[in-house]
Design goal:
The structure is a homodimer of 436-residue chains. Chain A is an alpha+beta fold. Chain A has three domains: 138 residues, 2-Layer Sandwich (BirA Bifunctional Protein, domain 2); 155 residues, Bira Bifunctional Protein, Domain 2 (BirA Bifunctional Protein, domain 2), CATH 3.30.930; 85 residues, Anticodon-binding domain (Rossmann fold). The first copy, chain A, contains 13 helices and 21 strands. The relative contact order of chain A is 0.12. The model of chain A has no long low-confidence stretch (mean pLDDT 94). Chains A, B: Its EC number is 6.1.1.21.
Chain lengths: 436, 436
C-alpha cells in the first residue's frame, strides 16, 4: 500500500528524475562544488538545537532496544541537509580546505502530517560554501548564477529567483524604532497567507507597533524590482540605520551580478524572509513561471552563526532545490515526458532457444561499445518479440542471421548490420526527456 | 561526533564513490535494467514477514506522536532493497511491463550492534528481474555477467563470483534421507565459521543425521570447480533425487554461460547457502582477490516465492553489491586514490577585487564549454592563489590579461589562451580515480 507523504515514482518517472539529477550535479560541479553525503541520522540534540523543528523529527528506535535510551544517545532522521553539513564541517574542519564548497543530493524526512503536496520523505539538492572566520560576500552573488544555470539546463518553465536580505528588514525595523525585529519578521512573513490588514493588526498587537510603523513595514514589504532601483524606493521611505545600508548594498550586488549573467533571472523581493531561524543576511526563493501558486521550489540564504568550534566560526551561504517538490508539481501537470521506460536501445531477437548464446554474444558486442542492449526473454514469434520492444519504447530490434539485420521499429526500416560497427543515431542512445 | 556504524566519507572519497556508482549504473543500464527508487520506510509487518530479521529493524516514531500507534501503522527503515522491491512490484504490477528488470542504488539500515566492519547504514546497488507466473532460467545466468562487467570496469582487484544452487543441497539431503533440509542447510552454512567437525556433530544432534549422512553432507560442501566438472563429482557421491538433478543442470548452465563470457569469472562452490530464507535456487556470492578474508561483497539469488498477488506469483532473481562494504575495505587498505579533491579543473586568478566581474565572465565562458571552473575566493598575491589550486589538486590557473594566459601548475608551463576556445587535456577534465 502507498504510504501518505512517501512518494514513489514509476520507472519512466525515475528515468526523468535521474536525468534531472545528472544535470543538477553537472552544473554544481562546473562551479567547483565537491560532492558530499552525510549519514541519514543525527543526534536528537543536534537536530533540536537548530530552529523550531521539534515537531518535524522522526526518531529511531531499534525494535529490540531497552526502554532506557538516554536522550543524548537518541538518533533522528535529518530534516534538511544544512544542519548535517554544519555538523560535518565542525567535525572534520581539520581535514577540509577552506573555503569549502560542497553539494549534497539526498533524501530528508519530516514527521509532519502530510497535506497539500507536502512530503514526509523528499529529495533535496543543496550547494553551500563555508569558510573559516569570515566568508566573502561574493559567494552570496554566486548562488543565483548556479541555480539559474541549473534551471536553464532542464526542460521546465523559466524560473525567477527572489532575493532579499534580512539586514534590510532588521535594520529598517530597528531604524523605525521597533525593538523585537524577529517578531516583526515572523509576522510580515505571513503576508501572502493572511493579507496586509491582518499583518498590520498583528504587528500592532504582538510587536508593539503603531499604526504608522505597521504601515511602513507593509510599504517595505511591497517593494519588488528586477534591478537596483529598489534601493531608492527603500530610501524614499525615510528610515535610516547602518544595518539597513549594509543590507541594501549587499542585495544590490546580488541583483547586479545576476543581471550581468542572465538578465531577468532574479528579482529583489523585500517581503520574503524564509521561516528557518539561522539565516542572517541574503535569503533566496524561486518561483517557476506558471507554477507560482505552488510556492517556492528553492530555499536558501546566508548563515553566519550555524557552525562554530570553540571561538572559530564557520559562516556559510547556500541554497537548496526541492527536487521531489519540483517533480511532484511537474508530474502532476503532465509537464515532463520521456521517450522510453527502459535504458535499452536494442532488443536482440532470439530465433530459437538453441541460438540464445549467439544472441548473447551479439548483445555483448553492442554493450561493449556502449549501446544498452537486452536479449529477448523468449524465442516467441518475431511479432511478439517486436511487441516486447514496442511496449517499452525501445527503438531497435536486431535479427541474427547471415547477415544480421537491425530494424527501426518506428519507421519499419530494416538494414544489414554488424554488432562490431553498427551505431544508433546519438539521439536514440539514451531515453530523451522533454517538456509537455 | 562520529556515530558508530554510520560511515561518512571525506569529499575526495565521495568523488571515488560517485565515479564507482556511475560505472555501476552505466553497466546496469547497458543490460537494460531500469532505474527505481523506493521509499526508505516499509510497514513493520512487511519487514518482519521476510526472514528472521526482527532484531535488525529501526522503527520510526514522530517526536510528538501519541503513544498508541497501532502495530499495523508502524514504519521501519528497510534493511535491504529486495523486500521493498517485491512490495513495489505487487503494488504496481498493473503499471509495469514484465519481465521487469530494475536496478536500485540506495542506503539501507540495520539496527544491529556494529562490529568488525559491519555498518548500520550502508549503500547497496541491486539488480533484479521479476516476471509474472514463471521466470525463464536464463536470467539466473545473466547475473554473473553483469556483476563481472561491473567489477571489470572498476580500478579494483579481480573478483570471483561463487555460485551454488539450493536445489542441489536440498535434493541431495533429501536423497540421503534427511527430512529437515532447512536445518541441514543452516548447519552446513556455518562450515567456514565452526569447521567440519562441529558441523558434523551439529548435523547429528540437530538434524537427525547418522555419521555417514553427516560425512556425505560435508563431502558435498567440499566440492568446488570453475567448470561443469562439479556435476560428475556430485554424481560420484551416489545420491539421486529429481531436485538434485534439476539443481545440477541449472548450476552447470550458470557456469557455462559465464565461462563463455569471461573465463575464470565464476566458480561453483557447493558450500555456500546465503542466510536469508527467501532464496529457492541459484545463490551468488563474490570474493575480491586479496580480500577473501573479509568475506563476500555481493549477495543474491533466485527467489520464486517472495512476491504474489492473489494466486499470481512474481518469481525473481537478483544480486546486490555491498558498495559501502566494498569501499570501506578498499579505503581501509588505501587501495583507491583520486587525482584531486574537487571537480574543479581551472581556477581563475583575480588580479584585484575590481576585476572580479571580468574573472566571472571568463569562468562563465569556460563552464559554458563544460570545463569545471572556480574563481579565486580572494584577490590575494598570485602565489597564494596558485596555492589555493595546488592544495586541492586543481591542475590549471588562469590569469586574465592582454592576452589571458593559463598555467599548468604541475609542469609550470604557461601559454596564451582564449576562454572561448582553450581546452584542457581530456584526462584533466575530471578527477581520475585509480588503484593504489
Amino acid at each position: 500500500m502507498p504510504i501518505s507523504g512517501f512518494p514513489e515514482w514509476l520507472p519512466s518517472q525515475r528515468i526523468i528524475e535521474q536525468q534531472i539529477l545528472d544535470r543538477i550535479r553537472s552544473t554544481f560541479e562546473l562551479y567547483g562544488y565537491a560532492p558530499l553525503e552525510t549519514r541519514a541520522v543525527e543526534p536528537l540534540d543536534t537536530l533540536l538545537s537548530k530552529g523550531e523543528t521539534s515537531k518535524e523529527v522522526y526518531l529511531l528506535h531499534r525494535l529490540q532496544e531497552d526502554e532506557n535510551t538516554k536522550r543524548e544517545d537518541q538518533l533522528g532522521l535529518h530534516f534538511d541537509l544544512t544542519v548535517p553539513f554544519a555538523r560535518f564541517v565542525t567535525e572534520n574542519h581539520g581535514k577540509l580546505q577552506f573555503p569549502f564548497k560542497r553539494y549534497q543530493i539526498q533524501k530528508v524526512w519530516r514527521g509532519e502530517r502530510p497535506q497539500e503536496g507536502r512530503y514526509r520523505e523528499f529529495l533535496q539538492a543543496d550547494i553551500d560554501v563555508v569558510n573559516r572566520d569570515t566568508l566573502p560576500f561574493h559567494f552570496d552573488t554566486e548562488m543565483p548564477l548556479v541555480i539559474g544555470d541549473v534551471f536553464r539546463s532542464l526542460p521546465i518553465p523559466p524560473a525567477t529567483i527572489l532575493v532579499n536580505n534580512r539586514k534590510i528588514c532588521e535594520g529598517f525595523y530597528r531604524g523605525l524604532g521597533l525593538a523585537d525585529t524577529a517578531q516583526v519578521l515572523r509576522t510580515v512573513d505571513k503576508l501572502d497567507k493572511i493579507g496586509p490588514e491582518k499583518v498590520a493588526a498583528a504587528l500592532i498587537e504582538t510587536a508593539g507597533a503603531t499604526d504608522a510603523q505597521a504601515g511602513q513595514c507593509l510599504r517595505l514589504a511591497e517593494i519588488s524590482a528586477t534591478d537596483a532601483s529598489f534601493v531608492d524606493r527603500v530610501r524614499a521611505l525615510g528610515v535610516t540605520d547602518p544595518m539597513l545600508d549594509e543590507g541594501l548594498d549587499e542585495l544590490a550586488q546580488v541583483i547586479e551580478v545576476a543581471n550581468q549573467h542572465a538578465p531577468g533571472l532574479v528579482r529583489a523581493e523585500l517581503k520574503i524572509a524564509r521561516g528557518l531561524d539561522y539565516y542572517t543576511g541574503t535569503v533566496y526563493e524561486t518561483l517557476l513561471q506558471g507554477y507560482e501558486r505552488f510556492g517556492s521550489i528553492t530555499s536558501g540564504g546566508r548563515y553566519d552563526n550555524l557552525a562554530s568550534v570553540g571561538n572559530t566560526r564557520f559562516p556559510g551561504v547556500g541554497i537548496s532545490i526541492g527536487v521531489s517538490r519540483l517533480l511532484g508539481l511537474l508530474f502532476g501537470q503532465g509537464a515532463l515526458t520521456v521517450s522510453r521506460s527502459v535504458p535499452t536501445c536494442v532488443v536482440v531477437a532470439v530465433p530459437s532457444d538453441d541460438r540464445r548464446l549467439e544472441c548473447d554474444r551479439i548483445a555483448s558486442a553492442l554493450r561493449g561499445r556502449g549501446i544498452p542492449t537486452e536479449v529477448s526473454p523468449t524465442a516467441a514469434k518475431f511479432g511478439k518479440q517486436i511487441q516486447f520492444a514496442d511496449r517499452r519504447g525501445i527503438p531497435f530490434v536486431w535479427f541474427p542471421g547471415e547477415p544480421d539485420t537491425v530494424k527501426d521499429i518506428r519507421s519499419g526500416e530494416q538494414v544489414e548490420a554488424d554488432p562490431e560497427t553498427w551505431q544508433p543515431p546519438a539521439a536514440d542512445l539514451r531515453p530523451v526527456v522533454s517538456a509537455g
